[in-house]
Amino acid sequence: MRTEQPKVIHLKDYQVPAYLIDETHLTFELYEDRTLVHAQLVMRRNPEAGAGLPPLELHGQDLELVSLALNDRQLAAGDYQLGEESLTLQPDSERFTLDSSVVIHPETNTALEGLYKSGKMFCTQCEAEGFRKITWYLDRPDVMSTFTTTVSAEKQRYPILLSNGNPIASGSEDDGRHWVTWEDPFRKPAYLFALVAGDLWCVEDSFTTMSGREVALRIYVEPENLDKCQHAMDSLKRSMKWDEEAYGREYDLDIFMIVAVNDFNMGAMENKGLNIFNSSAVLAHAETATDAAHQRVEAIVAHEYFHNWSGNRVTCRDWFQLSLKEGFTVLRDAQFSADMNSATVKRIEDVAYLRTHQFAEDAGPMAHSVRPESYMEISNFYTLTVYEKGAEVVRMIQTLLGKEGFRKGSDLYFERHDGQAVTVDDFVKAMEDANDADLGQFKRWYSQAGTPRLAVSERYDEAARTYTLTFRQSCPPTPGQNSKEPFVIPVELGLLAADGRELPLRLHGEAAPVGTSRVLAVTEAEQSFTFVELDERPLPSLLRGFSAPVKLEFPYSRDQLMFLMQHDSDGFNRWEAGQQLSVQVLLELIGQQQRGEPLAMDERLTMALRSLLQDETLDPAMVAEMLSLPSELYLTEISEVADVDAIHAAREFARRELASRLFEPLYQRYMTHREVSRQTPYVASAEHFARRALQNIALAYLMLSERSDILALCLDQFDTADNMTERLSALASLINSPFEDKRALALQSFAEQFSDNPLVMDQWFSVQAASPLSGGLERVQTLMQHPAFTLKNPNKVRALIGAFAGQNLVNFHRADGAGYRFLADQVIALNAMNPQIASRLLGPLTRWRKYDSGRQALMKAELERILASGELSSDVYEVVSKSLA
Ligand code: B3K
Ligand code: ZN
């Protein structure tokens, strides 16, 4: 906590470390009221840092220093200087050993950073700068060391003692304590350090790597969760195999461990050999976790495992390079999920998420480039821009170089930089060198913030039989960046004939056509491409597979969009055409609503969706995606000034119209799919996800009819389903329905049935928090008093407060500002307890510029109230002050 302004760290100020740490030997003595940490650091002057012996400055936070020795000589108080978060001393030789002992208090650590307690167990979270809360250290990713770690604790309470690497020794003491020593032979930065102690049970399996080494796999959980680990274990083995095949990457230690903890600030953490997971990202069982939860577990297990190479073996030089590991690893996990499930559906989900959330970030006060130039608090930069847009940037490199070229580049990158802490430039250089390519201009994607706009116009010359597409790119100003240089925008496209055929693509000057789908690189502010030998005016299918993270503008008519929905060979663009049609129809309805006119919906949307519903050859998951109207949040994002109430009214009207006009086909599909679900035991695979997705969206529409026979179907699904996917969808449909007594009963029986499962209770909180029925704020306030709720657990905060402010737009944006006041109160309470969670929760308030002047004033007033509320963490201070700037 601080009263003065936190200092700003700049990328341009980077300097190599003055000293290096070759070996780190740690001993932890865990007690209920304190923990003793002894650190022995074998250090030397960094030869790259110049001559002489400058003072050594170590990082530390909230450490009680007990003793300090340099080369075995005890240091007296005058031999070193203790600053607020630093310890400085003067080495007297090039090589030396530093021993320190400190006392820390994990038992009172509510920030969940450093060493802390989650329930009865000890665990750590060190990325980005949590290791300095454990011991005095050079807590920066370019200082890489081997580690040996001895953990000692009471045997009865903490039978399992874990750290990174392999266990090399253990023993018991007479006083009921025991100890284990772990050795991690791979040099790593401190942010990858981990320690766990607790009464844990494990599920065990093994994996034989491509070179024939056997690796022990263990997932540690509290005993009641042993039956919920199989899906994560299967996902882990699939990930290990996939990374060998897709990227040639083999696992390197003899053991790989995952530990599930209940109190965790994010999804999971890739600590070397000892991944620590939020229990929500590892536990999955048909009866307690939805299909979405199963897919999330698979993706996060893969993501953390893939970090072993993209992040651990090759790590980041400094935190400005965060996307080097995160963007690349998100792309890798997306490619994995695409291979395990429906690739098109995965792409649709990712793009919808990016356009709704990352585009909003890019247009807001916290906008920053994929490689930021500066920060106050690095924890605030684990953003959608660094992760999701970062992944899009690497995907574009693959699109430009081709799959084979990209693989050559990644092979070179891993080989060249194994064991090093490197930069985004090193990554791009490896891609260039392996392909003899020039990505100089492309690198603007790393340094320029904001979402580019790409406006496309067409001209068909009947006499010359040519078709010209002209692209104009521009990018809005973002904080600190007023003007932008043109990006390299890969545009994958095809041209369709009137009968739906894909036309051969021959550019002016080419000897022969090159396929029917190809990538053009738009590199200028304005640039034209002319296709020749076209006997008719084609319809372009642009930005296939969302080949670049831009806002594409092309004046499609609604009939053309319907045509693309049916004929485009690119599955993503078929969905995209449907979305654009829906957006056009919804914007028209929003306009009618705002002008006080009666609402009338374009019949063509119904027609298009009807033919999809009736086509049994289509992937049901795709049909489900196409039936989902753009979210209120997405409609907010694309509005100049978002009219929350009109958006909600128009979208609800459209849903009811579709529900009544498509009642018959929805009913047919629901009945068939529900019957199959009834007769099939739960399977977590793409085909089954697809069936249930269509079944459940059909149910949600049908329930809008408010018919009692449909209510009976919904109640039956709620009562008799053997899995959480069907049960929770039925509950969500029920609680948004007008059947008040059924709502209450269902909520009550659900809570009774699952009161001992915190992850299921999170879902129970979420469906209620997101319900748009009026009185939402009061319901959330009441739920905060529920015995299962606590502000101390980040999952609970996200499930209730996060879902309310992030998804329940009509209630959160109540015109009297009570929703804003509520959120600000929670941020102020959390600021002292858990700054990272407080800062995350702020997101919706930072978007105040999107709303009408009345709401703007109310939102700003709450931000100002937070700013004036007392000692703010650097996390909250940075977001609030930048939002108000
Ligand atoms: N690398 C971690 C994120 C750490 C966040 C620290 N505030 C999880 C991941 O991206 O895999
Ligand atoms: Zn990651």
TrEMBL record:
Catalytic activity: Release of an N-terminal amino acid, Xaa-|-Yaa- from a peptide, amide or arylamide. Xaa is preferably Ala, but may be most amino acids including Pro (slow action). When a terminal hydrophobic residue is followed by a prolyl residue, the two may be released as an intact Xaa-Pro dipeptide
One Gene Ontology MF term: zinc ion binding
Enzyme Commission numbers on file: 3.4.11.2
Domain Peptidase M1 membrane alanine aminopeptidase span(s) in chain numbering: 232-445
Ranges where the Aminopeptidase N-like N-terminal domain occurs: 80-192
Cofactor names: Zn(2+)
Classification via CDD domains: M1_APN
Residue ranges annotated for the Peptidase M1 alanyl aminopeptidase C-terminal domain, each copy included: 559-885
Family: Belongs to the peptidase M1 family.
Stated role: Aminopeptidase N is involved in the degradation of intracellular peptides generated by protein breakdown during normal growth as well as in response to nutrient starvation.
Name of the molecule in the record: Aminopeptidase N
Source species of the chain: Pseudomonas saudiphocaensis
